[in-house]
Amino acid sequence: MKKAFIGPRIQRLREDLGLNQAELARRLGLSASYLNQIEHNQRPLTTTVLARINATLGVELQVFTEEEQARLVADLREVLGENGGEEAIPLGDIKSLATNMPRIGRALVALHRRSQAAEERLAALAAPPGIPGGAAPTRRPMPYEEVRDFFYHRHNYVAELDEAAERLVAREGLTPGAMESGLEQLLRSRYGVTTTWAETDGTSLNRSYDAERHVLSLSRALSSGQRAFQLATQLAFLDQAALIDRLIECPQLPGPESRALARIGLANYFAGAVLLPYTPFLAATETLSYDIDLLGLRFGVGFETVCHRLSTLQRAEARGVPFFFVRVDRAGNISKRQSATDFHFSRVGGTCPLWNVYEAFAHPGRIVTQMAAMPDGRTYLWIARTVDHSRSGYGTPGKTFAIGLGCDLRHAGKLVYARGLDLAHPEAAMPIGAGCKVCDRPSCPQRAFPPLGRAVRIDEHHSAFDPYPAR
Question: Where is the HTH cro/C1-type domain positioned along the sequence (predicted)?
Answer without folding.
Answer: 10-64
